[in-house]
Each structure stands twice: as structure tokens, then as C-alpha cells.
């Protein structure tokens, strides 16, 4: 991105001429993110408050919607204009892509001084680095493959939380017969893809998931197992209400809280909504791993972009150190619904769902059952992710056969590659 360096120099010069604020102890940061719903907004508020408590100046740049897609569009425009924010909510292969274009700045001196390698899971630490140096700081670990349930609605049909997809389907049939919507869902591509990857893990297992959705192995993509995944997606389509198209994820979460639907398949950021509404996870709303064996990893992180000026560089270092501090990791994740990225943070203040998540994470690391999320940009480049989401969403919203969906999936990945 040769244009990036030229425009950045020009923009920084303009910024200095426009008005140079005196440097403060914590420096300054402009943070671009898409955390705007109840639990998310509370979590980013914790980060803002902690940064300002150290004497820093925080400029908030929230861009709502689309699982972060609008934010990435805005980021591209900002970078091409030579005016990047100093820190951006970014994850997975996207970190490496931006680093390759020359847009990011490393905070490896902070990471080495604070021994990040000793407190992060190796698979997560590797994602935060480019050419061996830390360019991002992770704030959390989210589990994607959660099943949230309304206990009162399950009690009405005498059902327990299902542990297999066969049990899920049988319970859903009971709920439908009782006039209850089985599955709360928002008809947006990233939400469709979230359900898809959870089903893929549940039906195929971690090895299949890794081959098909991370390595993009043609044999796995064209297998009978993938056909079975699309078959289950077609079954799930029959369990959602007619109002699902375009619904935001947090509104689907509210359906479970309010007794309008029995289940939601969504990552544990949904728990942040329950907490913000005063609900007790594990009691008012039940939490269980979705049917299957494994752990789908999603991790939010902030990537530092190339900025000039001591105040902004200092702000990046303070922000990186703050994000990785044990105290902040605890406070932030208690608000967000996730668990700390650091493995050495005590969980005694966390709810039973978070403790279950941490225990399953430890098991998954030991059994090689920890897999990165496709839907949430941890597994493949955005271009390939987009092609896969298009196929999944089209299948979910039409009468496309599972066999045709598999072929379309293979063709789309080849086209993107």
C-alpha cells in the first residue's frame, strides 16, 4: 500500500498544523470499533474509562452493524485517505493482511517487557503477531458454539437442553407443536455463517472443521459430511419465525430472554446482553455447548495502526499494556460475557457459563479440538469468508439443495482463491 505511507505523512502534517494538544501522561488514541449494543457498549466503556483514568485522551469512533463489515469499509477509506485511527478492532487473518500492506505498528517492546508469550494460548499469540512481533493485543476469548435456552419454555414441553442435533430437532418439534418458536435467529449473512460453522463442528467434529473451513480441503468440502451439514441447516430454517430477515443478533437474544423463542445459537457475547438486562446466566437463561465436540474460538483484539507524533505513539503503548493487564482483562470480560485472553486470570468472579467455557477451552487445547471461527474472521481471509457466507445465506433463504450448495461452495472458494 504505497499510497498509504504518502497519505499518512500528509495527514499527520495537517493534523499537527490544525492544533497540537499538549501531550498527557497516557497519550491519545482514536479507537475504531463496532461495539454498540448493550453489553458491548458497556465493555468498550470499561476500556475507555480505564484509559482515561491513566491520564489519556480517548476519541471514540463506533460504527455499528454487520458483524464489523461496515467498520472495515470505513477503515479502508480512512487508510486510503491517509488518516488511520490509532487502534482498530480487528482479528484473525485480517491482522496479517493489514500488516502485509504496511499499515500497522508493532507494540512488541510492551509485549516482551510484560511477557505476553507466557500468558496467552499459543494459537492466539500467533494470530496477534506479524513476522514474530506483536502488532495487536487481545482483549478476550469468545466461544462461538454456545446454545442459549429459555428454561421456562423448555419446561412447558418437558424438555432438557439437547446434547445432539437429533435431540435438538426432536425438542424443536415439541416446541412448535406447543406454539413456541424453537430458534431465535437474525437473518444476516454473518449470523447464518455462525450457525453454519457451529453445525459443521457438531456434525463433522474438529478434524473435519479444520480441513473444510480452515484448510479449505476440496475433499472435505465435497464430502457427504458437508452435505449433512447443509441438510441440518435446512432443518433449522424450518424452526425460525417469519420475522427473522435482517434482525440484529441482540434482538434475537432478547427473544430468548423475553420468552418469545426457546433457543439461540450464538457466541457468548450474547451473555453480555443477559447481564446488561439483569439476568443470571445459568439460571434465568441456560447455557450449554451446542451439540458436538470442540471449541470454536473467536477473539477480539485491537491492532495498532501506523501513526506519527509522540502523543499518539505513547497512547498506543499505554492502550496495549492496559488491554493485557490482569485487572482490565477481568473487568472487561465480566462486562462482555467472554473470558480473559490471559490464562492466568482467576475466574472466581465469573459466572458458571464463563467457568464452563474456560474448562472446555483448556480441554480443547489439550485434545487439538480448538478451531478458529470462520464467521468471525479468525480462520480465512475476508474474501473467502465472504464467498462462503454468500452460499450459506442463499441456501438458507431458498430451496437450494444441499448437493447444489456443496458444489456452489467449492466453486466459490476456488473463485476467491
Describe the structure concisely for a colleague.
By secondary structure, the protein is α/β, with parallel strands linked by helices. It has helices spanning 2-18, 38-53, 69-80, 93-100, 108-114, 122-127, 151-156, 165-177, 189-214, 218-221, 224-237, 249-257, 270-276, 310-323, 326-336, 352-366, 382-397, 402-416, and strands at residues 28-33, 57-62, 87-90, 129-130, 133-134, 136-138, 142-143, 146-149, 181-184, 261-265, 286-289, 295-298, 301-304, 370-372.
For the structure shown, list the relevant keywords.
18 helices; four-stranded mixed β-sheet; 52% helix; disordered N terminus; alpha/beta; single chain; 417 residues; five-stranded mixed β-sheet
Please give a structural write-up.
The chain is built from 18 helices and 14 strands. The chain has 417 residues and is α/β, with parallel strands linked by helices. Strands 2-1-3-13-6 form a five-stranded mixed beta sheet. It has a four-stranded mixed beta sheet with strand order 9-10-8-11. Helix 2 (38-53) links the parallel strand 1 and strand 2 (57-62). Helix 9 (189-214) packs antiparallel against helix 11 (224-237) and helix 9 crosses helix 17. The protein is globular.
